[in-house]
């Protein structure tokens, strides 16, 4: 596949991720922060997000598994996850976190467990998609092309 | 496309000026040095990059305590006497374990040495009482996360201008607000042909610029976003 085709594929894929709500404009913002002097910025941030999220999801699972659930603690974790997902533009993950926090406030265990399940699902989806996206970027760069910006 | 509109009296003044503000570099023509405080690693990296790409020197720390240590204000450690790198702006997250951004703000404003340094609060939560509290305590601005490049550019222009002209009075009294799109981050409104962030001359281009908002410019009326 030539560079042009790869770039088109990348743009199409990115567009679909926006359309389907996996990513929002904040992801565009991050792409704009990447340049020759910092060519791995997006990869680095996304990797940090993955690490952070996995840790938080583990913490959440444990916290909700307790006999006596500490909802403040659960909320604190969700707040963090909401923050980082918002910062990288993981729109659907962020939205589940918003609902999740409401259930924490209500101390609604069923609601919380449902949200935990949902947020894990959304996280794994967006993780998958971001990995695909970043792979496409790498292919473009390896073929000597530059990454087109969606502005 | 999501756009965080900004309202401030300062921008109205710029509009009245009739021309784009000149570049007033700080007196010693050095880059602005910004102290960024955030406990989230992801956010710290983002703000650091936003500032660096805007030609600022950045020191990023993960807590209010470390920020105070850096400034030499921490009571527990003896005066560090660091190499006198002047800090032109402090930008801090609100929600942090240990010391909140608000508590950090208070400590800075209580210090005779550092109270003149502009402090900006960042928060993912759009809570009016919190915004008021911060501004009353002397914060320059309260930015709702996620922080964008246009926010940083705007801050930098503002701080640079202040450093160059040395005037603060009018700006200091102004209560500034940051407005967010009603259709917050809606992906359906994110199109590839989205316009670039708003220019200083059109602060009212956000969909929130309804007449009622303009009547009470210092109050955010948006209450959704489920927070």
From TrEMBL, chain A:
It is found in: Cytoplasm, Cytosol; Nucleus. The modification Phosphohistidine is found at residue 79. One of its GO terms (cellular component) is cytosol. GO terms for molecular function: histidine phosphotransfer kinase activity; protein histidine kinase binding. Keywords: Cytokinin signaling pathway, Cytoplasm, Nucleus, Phosphoprotein, Two-component regulatory system. One of its GO terms (biological process) is cytokinin-activated signaling pathway. PROSITE patterns: HPT. CDD domains: HPT. Residues 38-143 form the HPt domain. Functions as a two-component phosphorelay mediators between cytokinin sensor histidine kinases and response regulators (B-type ARRs). Plays an important role in propagating cytokinin signal transduction. Histidine-containing phosphotransfer domain (HPt) contains an active histidine that mediates the phosphotransfer. This is Histidine-containing phosphotransfer protein. It comes from Tetracentron sinense.
From TrEMBL, chain B:
Residues 161-227 are annotated as: Disordered. Keywords: Phosphoprotein, Two-component regulatory system. Residues 161-181 have a biased composition (Basic and acidic residues). It holds the Pfam family Response_reg. One of its GO terms (biological process) is cytokinin-activated signaling pathway. InterPro entries: ARR-like, CheY-like_superfamily, Sig_transdc_resp-reg_receiver. Residues 201-216 have a biased composition (Low complexity). Residues 33-160 form the Response regulatory domain. The modification 4-aspartylphosphate is found at residue 93. It comes from the Eukaryota. PANTHER family: TWO-COMPONENT RESPONSE REGULATOR (PTHR43874), TWO-COMPONENT RESPONSE REGULATOR ARR3-RELATED (PTHR43874:SF50). This is Response regulatory domain-containing protein. It comes from Tetracentron sinense (Spur-leaf).
């Amino acid at each position: 596949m030539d560079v042009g085709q790869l770039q088109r594929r990348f743009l199409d894929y990115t567009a679909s991720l926006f359309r389907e709500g996996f990513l929002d404009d904040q992801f565009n913002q991050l792409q704009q922060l990447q340049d020759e002097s910092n060519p791995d910025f997006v990869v680095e941030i996304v990797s940090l997000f993955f690490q952070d999220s996995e840790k938080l999801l583990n913490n959440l699972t444990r916290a909700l598994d307790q006999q006596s659930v500490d909802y403040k603690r659960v909320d604190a974790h969700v707040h963090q996850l909401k923050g980082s997902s918002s910062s990288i533009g993981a729109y659907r993950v962020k939205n589940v976190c918003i609902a999740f926090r409401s259930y924490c406030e209500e101390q609604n265990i069923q609601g919380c467990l449902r949200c935990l399940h949902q947020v894990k699902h959304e996280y794994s989806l967006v993780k998958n998609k971001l990995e695909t996206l970043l792979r496409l970027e790498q292919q473009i760069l390896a073929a000597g092309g530059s990454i087109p910006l969606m502005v | 496309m999501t756009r965080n509109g900004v309202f401030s009296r300062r921008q109205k003044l710029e509009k009245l000026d009739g021309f784009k503000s000149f570049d007033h570099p700080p007196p010693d023509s050095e880059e602005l040095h910004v102290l960024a405080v955030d406990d989230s690693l992801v956010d710290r990296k983002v703000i650091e990059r936003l500032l660096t790409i805007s030609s600022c020197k950045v020191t990023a720390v993960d807590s209010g305590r470390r920020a105070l240590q850096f400034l030499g204000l921490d009571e527990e450690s003896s005066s560090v006497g660091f190499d006198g790198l002047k800090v032109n702006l402090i930008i801090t997250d609100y929600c942090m374990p240990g010391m909140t951004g608000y508590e950090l703000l208070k400590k800075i404003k209580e210090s005779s040495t550092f109270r003149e340094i502009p402090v900006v609060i960042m928060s993912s939560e759009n809570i009016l009482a919190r915004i008021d509290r911060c501004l009353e305590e002397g914060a320059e601005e309260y930015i709702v996360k996620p922080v964008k490049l246009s926010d940083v550019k705007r801050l930098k222009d503002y701080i640079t201008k202040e450093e160059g002209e040395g005037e603060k009075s009018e700006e200091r009294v102004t209560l500034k607000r940051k407005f967010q799109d009603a259709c917050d981050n809606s992906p359906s409104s994110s199109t590839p042909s989205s316009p670039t962030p708003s220019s200083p001359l059109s602060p009212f281009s956000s969909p929130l610029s309804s007449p009622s908002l303009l009547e009470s410019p210092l109050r955010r009326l948006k209450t959704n976003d489920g927070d």
